[in-house]
Amino acid sequence: MSKNNDWIKGVDSDAESFFEHLYSEYRESCSKWLQANYNIRPENAPDIFQQAILILYDNIQLKKVQFQEDTKVKTYLYGIAKNLAMSNIRYIKKWSQVNEPEKVFDVILDQDSMVQDENDNAKSKVLSLNKALESIGESCKKLLTLFYYHSLKMNEIAEKLNYTNASTAKAQKYKCIQRLKKLVAHE
Amino acid sequence: MNDSTQDKIDKIVIGEIDIETNELTEKEKDLLKDTTEIKEALRLHDLMQKKSIIDKLESNYTINEKSITQSSRFKLMRGLAAVCLLLIGATFVFNTFSKGFNPDEYIIHQTLRSTDNSQLSNDKKKAYNLFILGEYDRAIPRLEKLSTNTTDTISQYYLALSYYGVGQKGKYLSAISDPRVNHLKKPE
Fold first, then answer.
1. Is the pLDDT at A3 greater than 60, yes or no?
2. What is the tens place of the pLDDT at every residue in A147-185?
3. Quick check: A105 and B44 CB within 8 A?
4. B177-184: long-range contacts at Cβ-Cβ below 8 A with a sequence spacing of 24 or more?
5. Residue A64 pLDDT
6. Which residues does chain A have within 8 Å of residue B129's beta carbon, measured at their own beta carbons?
7. Structural domains of chain A in order of their starting residue, each with its CATH number
8. Which residues of A fall within a CB distance of 8 Å from B37?
9. CB proximity B137 to A under 8 Å
10. Mean pLDDT of all residues belonging to chain B
11. So what's the ipTM on this one?
């Protein structure tokens, strides 16, 4: 097994290769492992694997975990898969057919979401904002995602998205937020 | 709202600074709530996009799996035989001991026991899982202990393979020649 973890470092710039690597290395073995150790039916094991790699990606973005070598990725990934397998409620069967953001919210975000509200308003607000993101334009979406989710600095974002400098990127970020809020308000 | 307030809230949301909410003004609290919701919406949006990449990979994987099992089984077997011959030949030329060793090909405990996992003791479960995860250094002491039971074939087999995994050739050869396991599949 390769100890080279370049594929993890490239997660932001080339997510497709990141997931391809996980698929080629672990799709088969992780599914077999789940069947052998946790009595998971063969048709459900891939569902757990797919949800586990999405959670792995999310945890990397949220800086909950950092890896030095491939073997640790395997241990961490199998740990997520084990947790999903052991809580029958949390993983969703026929995951590939799930297209509703609400279900993805329930599986991935709900457990540790920073959004806390006494009623369910926060969740519906997030879902409205998510819908509005479809209309704010690719460049705004990229800028905001890089800043708030991938935690990049303004100067890094400016370089990546070809803005003159960090101040221009920051001003653009403000405009994008206002545009997003306006869209939600008019929904 | 001024720029420095938004900067402060942004730093809290992206985890750069940690401030108790009771230290914030009411206006800052509202802004924190709004900004957190935006962050979660962006997170959800990004995850939905990544999910579609995964869905495609799964769909391709399933198609490939079917085409391999249905139409190319014979070709695959012939190909595998050729590769095995090449590998056997190559081992005489190169010292490739334990390189690229994949424990998944040697897992036998799910086939040698019933589907009831409760039959495995916790010690065995831990040792076997460490072996499967490729953490041979941690698996070896546990397996050495388990394999002292002369009826425990699986532990002896995984012990031999763990020695192989860490490149301890002498110990591997000695462990794999044990009568309990010398008939089982060996890494070539």
1. no
2. 999 989 999 999 999 999 999 999 999 999 999 999 888
3. yes
4. B180/B150, B180/B152, B180/B153, B180/B156, B181/B153, B181/B156, B181/B157, B184/B108, B184/B157
5. 86
6. 37
7. 4-96 (1.10.1740.10), 101-185 (1.10.10)
8. 115, 122, 125-126, 129
9. no
10. 79
11. 0.90
